[in-house]
Each structure stands twice: as C-alpha cells, then as structure tokens.
Amino acid sequence: MAVEVRELECFLVLADELHFGRTAERLYLSQSRVSQLLQSLERRIGGTLVERTSRRVALTPLGKEFLTSLRPAYAALERVVENARECATSVKGRLRIGFQGSANDIVLAAVSEFQKENPNCLIDVAELPLNDPFGAVRRGDIDAAVVMLPVAEDDLVLGPVFSQQQQTLTVCAKHRLAGRDSIDAEDLAGEVLIAISGPAPGYWRQAQAPTQTPRGALIHRGPEVRTLQEGLSLIAANRGGMLVCRPTAENSKWAGVVNIPITGLPDSTLGLIWRRGEDTPALKAFATLIDPAPIG
Questions:
Q1: What is the pLDDT of residues 124-162, one digit of tens each?
Q2: What are the HTH lysR-type domain coordinates in residue numbering (predicted)?
C-alpha cells in the first residue's frame, strides 16, 4: 500500500511530543485528524505504534523500532527534495541576451551585475537586426531580447519595460527642419520617413515609421532599411528622416546629420521578451536586474 508522507510526518512529531494536543498544534491540525493519520498508518503497517491512555502517550516496541528506521529515511527524503529544489532554482549554464542597435546603460549594467552575482552562469550578448526583433528569440538562437516596443506576439512574453525616452527626428543638415530646436508630430506632414523592412510585423514597423500624423495628415514612406547604419547613410544623403530615441540619436555621430526633439508622439520604450513558458531561473534573475518588479 502507498505510504502517505503526511502520516509519517504526524508519527514523527507525535514521537517527539508524546502528546496529541501539542502534535496537533505543531502540524496545524485538529487532534481528531492526528488520531486519524496515526490509525491510518497503523493499518498500513498492521500493528500498533502508539499506546494512548488517559494519563500518557508512549511508543510501543514496534513504534520504537519503526521510529529508529524512519528518522534517517525521512531525513534522506527531505535532502532529496531540497537538492532537487536547489537544482531547479539555481542559476547556472548559459544565458544569451540579444539587443537592437547598441546596448544602453541599463542593459550593460544588468549584464555586469548578473555575471557578478551568478558566476556559474555565463551570459552572452548579441546584436539583433533592426528589422527582425523577434526572429532570433523564436528560433532559439537567444534566450531573451531587449527590443523596442510595441510587442503583441502571442508566443512571446513581454517582461520588464524600461528606458522610456523622448523620440527625435534624425535628418540631414540640409533638411528643411534641420534648423529647428524642436518640432511637433504634425510637422511631419508631407515629410518622408525612412522605413524598416520586414520580417518585423506590420504594426511594429508602423510604430517606428508612422504613415500618418496624430491628426491624420499623410507622412510619405521612404526607402526601407535593415539596420540603423543603413538608415543613417540614407539620412546623410538626404533621402528622408528617421525616428530615433534620444540616447541612440546622441550616440550616433554622423557628419551632416542632426537630431531634433519631437513632441506629440509616444516615447520610445524598450522591453525584455522571451518565449512563452521558458522563463528559466537565469532569465528571471536577469529580468530582476533590469527591473526590480517580479515576473508574472
């Protein structure tokens, strides 16, 4: 007959306390439930383990012999469970993180701190194509990716969202808007925005290079690029402008290219994504370092 762990635990505590009331308190059970568990265990064994009178509780000879064998076996079982728990929750192996463009300070700091806190898990980083934010995650080439929002993919989980930054319009110094200190989104009416090619989904590419202003005025779609460097090359050639987050714009030092802060558009925001159902201990640890809010 299958042995119930709760019955064994009840017997061990009762053997320590030799008192049904104190045993019930330690196990957060009623005294009647303690009696039921003991009786069930005795039926499985086929003999009496405890003698109970109005004055005292004592182990029978069979109970003493059973206790002697049970204590080390139960302790070994606890160690097995604890070892399995530690193995399941330990951070080890390899964690591969992808990012679009250049890794910002938040990501770099998280990578450095993760490696310091988890020396048994090697963390790798890889640059992702601007035009394919989700492909490497889906293929299993990387475990997670830092990508520009929005993310609306059923098979991917969007974890911590961070690095909310104002957008800028990056244009050639010869562009008609180049001398402005700032512009509004409606100033994009009639302008040409360099677009991002597939395989990124349409809603994501539309967010990076909208075809309408917030009031519905037309924005012309310019040539498509796969990388930021391709986009900057076309900007320098005055083929159109490109929406870029402020830190990326400031780090992009191209001669003849200027960055103009723009209002009236949603801020550029980054998020950490991974495949649904694959939030490993290593990934959870890394996500916590990017954003202290817990996952899920």
A1: 999 998 999 999 999 999 999 999 999 999 999 999 999
A2: 3-60
